[in-house]
Write a structure and sequence with these properties.
Order of helices and strands: EHEHEHEHEEHEHHHEEH
Helix content: 40-55%
Number of helices: 9
Bound molecules: guanosine-5'-diphosphate, magnesium ion
Strand order of the largest sheet: 3-2-1-4-7-5-8
Strand content: 15-25%
Length: about 240
């Protein structure tokens, strides 16, 4: 009997040997046989690839793609998505390897796709609110909010959080949206939203996008995003805006 893959999550991994929460991934694989995890080793120089091979050997619903050279998160995710299409799932998403967004949030995304058939993209959103447990350092919260406000204006969409590392897409749009490499290195999420907005006929964003307010998000230590990257973001945003406007 072949298992039906209904949802596929691409996990980009760059030197994640220390951070990879193997037991969380294994528990998820075991509990959800119809969910495929596709890890992408992005030219890591540590033992990441060995860990990914082990987990893929152990679970039928885990697989990996090995990029011999580091290509950056955007390209790692893009190549992972194109490979994920081979499994013919209903949705394909990406999910940061540090599990800052716990895997337990993923079923909430799938439920939204079921209850709102016109959805093309569900994005995790780190909305600081009472009752939620969003643990983002104050300075990253502020930088993130300022960036999101500019990005939201450039996109012409009321986005609260463009940069959360948990986003899921309807598989039917993936080949078109992920066909071309992204112009941007760190903020390819903004480009993704532009691309979907383009195919979604501009006026229907409320049916096509959903920002899901995460219940839990943790600022995991060991982020490879440095202050310098924040400084580059406005220039990348300008480049994207110019290209897609
Ligand atoms: N920093 C970095 N992350 C990459 C790269 N390729 C893939 N990734 C993955 O992209 C995700 C970004 O994670 P992280 O460094 O925690 O970024 P942050 O949470 O946005 O600060 C992780 O799953 C990384 O393993 C790369 O070239 N550089
Ligand atoms: Mg992180």
């Amino acid at each position: 009997m072949t298992e039906m893959t209904t949802h596929c999550l691409v996990i980009p991994c760059y030197n994640e040997e220390q951070r990879l929460k193997l037991s969380a991934f294994e528990g998820h694989l075991q509990a959800n046989p119809a969910i495929q995890l596709l890890f992408v080793n992005d030219g890591s120089s540590d033992q990441t690839l060995r860990l990914l091979k082990e987990i893929s050997d152990k679970f039928q619903n885990a697989d990996f793609l090995d990029l011999p050279q580091n290509r950056g998160k955007a390209e790692a995710v893009r190549l992972g998505f194109l490979k994920a299409l081979e499994k013919n799932p209903q949705t394909i998403g990406f999910w940061d390897a540090d599990l800052a967004t716990p895997l337990e949030e993923a079923p909430e995304f799938y439920r939204l796709f079921e209850s709102r058939p016109k959805l093309l993209c569900v994005m995790g959103s780190r909305i600081l609110r009472m009752g939620g447990r969003i643990n983002r350092h104050l300075y990253r919260h502020i930088i993130g909010r300022v960036f999101a406000t500019f990005a939201s204006n450039a996109l012409g969409l009321p986005v609260y959080d463009t940069q959360c590392g948990a986003k899921i897409f309807k598989a039917s749009i993936v080949s078109e949206v992920f066909k071309q490499p992204f112009l941007s290195y760190w903020i390819f999420d903004v480009e993704l939203i532009y691309r979907i907005k383009k195919i979604s006929n501009y006026s229907h964003y409320n049916d096509n996008f959903y920002e899901y307010p995460l219940s839990i998000w943790n600022d995991e230590a060991g982020s490879k995003l440095k202050m310098f990257d924040f400084l580059k973001a406005p220039f990348e945003l300008l480049k994207i805006w110019w290209h897609y406007r």
